[in-house]
Amino acid sequence: TNCNLKDVITTHEFLNYLSSRYNFKAHFIVHEPDEEPSIKKIKKLKDLINKNSIKYIITEPEGEKIARVLSEETKVEILPFNTLHGGSDRDYFETMYENLKILKKALICDR
Question: Where does 1-109 have alpha helices with state H?
Fold first, then answer.
């Protein structure tokens, strides 16, 4: 409720549950990390970024290459999000707190 944005860009559909639960919209570049984004999809996301002043793309490590394409087109920053697929050197709670910080930054939250 303390966030200025209600939209985030993600590399693929890994924030659907969180976005539904916490009332924000996650727009994905591709359905699966091994896909290539279409020109039409990139254009649509560029328009969304410009319209809503979105400053970040949230990505898992395996989606960074996909995020880089849109980032270079729009000059938005890439924020890493750890879904624990590749493990972590931190415990679960530390990892989730880091992810929360990423979401708060992407959604421009006051607290």
Answer: 16-21, 39-52, 64-74, 92-106
- Which two tokens mark 97? 């707190």
pLDDT confidence tier of residue 36, bands split at 50, 70 and 90: confident
Q: Which residues, at least 6 apart from 98, have a Cβ–Cβ distance to it below 8 Å?
A: 82, 90
Assess whether pLDDT exceeds 70 at residue 66.
yes
User: What predicted TM-score, i.e. pTM, was given to this entire model?
Assistant: 0.88
* Residue 76 φ/ψ, nearest 5 degrees: -90, 155
CA distance 10 to 42: 12
Check: CB of residue 81 under 8 Å from CB of residue 59.
yes
Instruction: Say how far apart CA 61 and CA 79 lie, in whole Å.
Output: 10
Mean pLDDT of 41-68: 92
